[in-house]
Amino acid sequence: MNERKVLIVDDEFAIRDMLRMALEIAEFRCIEAENIQDAHALIVDERPDIVLLDWMLPGGSGLELLRRLKRNDATRELPVIMLTAKTAEDNVIQGLDVGADDYITKPFAPRELIARIKALLRRAAGGDQQDRIQVAELVLDGESRRIFLGEDPVDMGPTEFNLLQFFMSHPERAYTRNQLLDHVWGANVYVEERTVDVHIRRLRKALQTPLKDYSDLIQTVRGTGYRFSARGVPSR
């Protein structure tokens, strides 16, 4: 089996060492950098499969490197997970706006990070669209494009399906309307932001049945946009 190569960019040796050991146990190959200059050189020379990028770095922030990567055609599609001690939602949104594929806040469990890495690599390879995703009694079958609540099929339009598939693949993360437009409708498609609100209302309505109400899975984040949260699963 070919090892997937992970670039760890963090100025703290203890964190790099902890990540390297956990990733090597999970059969990843690791390369390391402690500043954005070395990181960029390694990206060009070593071509990693994914980058774990700390927000705060000497000689420039991780956000600065992320912007540089997303401006370059050769590195634009390189998956990037931001590692940050910044928990304020506006900082998280800023990283996602620039182009980060995911983020995780310190301190974090290595097992959770590895799960995020594997999920992101599957998405980058196009594997997410065929996944069967389940949250409690809500089941999304990407291959047949069908939704079930328990044993009952749920009727919804193709845009609502795509929106739910994106949300279920990216739980517990807040997204702005613009980000949802880019991910679900496509970056090159012009659609007004309020269109997102219309489809959110339709999606919530579709997730309400006479016996089950899963509409609270789609949460409004004041001042930001929306998130999908399993904490909205109704109690039995």
UniProtKB/TrEMBL annotation:
The keyword DNA-binding applies. Residues 130-230 bind DNA. One of its GO terms (cellular component) is cytosol. GO terms for molecular function: phosphorelay response regulator activity; transcription cis-regulatory region binding. SMART domains: REC (SM00448), Trans_reg_C (SM00862). The modification 4-aspartylphosphate is found at residue 54. Residues 130-230 form the OmpR/PhoB-type domain. The keyword Secreted does not apply. PROSITE patterns: OMPR_PHOB, RESPONSE_REGULATORY. Residues 5-121 form the Response regulatory domain. Keywords: Activator, Cytoplasm, DNA-binding, Phosphate transport, Phosphoprotein, Transcription, Transcription regulation, Transport, Two-component regulatory system. It holds the Pfam family Trans_reg_C. One of its GO terms (biological process) is regulation of DNA-templated transcription. It is found in: Cytoplasm. This protein is a positive regulator for the phosphate regulon. Transcription of this operon is positively regulated by PhoB and PhoR when phosphate is limited. This is Phosphate regulon transcriptional regulatory protein PhoB. It comes from Kineobactrum salinum. The lineage of its organism: Bacteria, Pseudomonadati, Pseudomonadota, Gammaproteobacteria, Cellvibrionales.
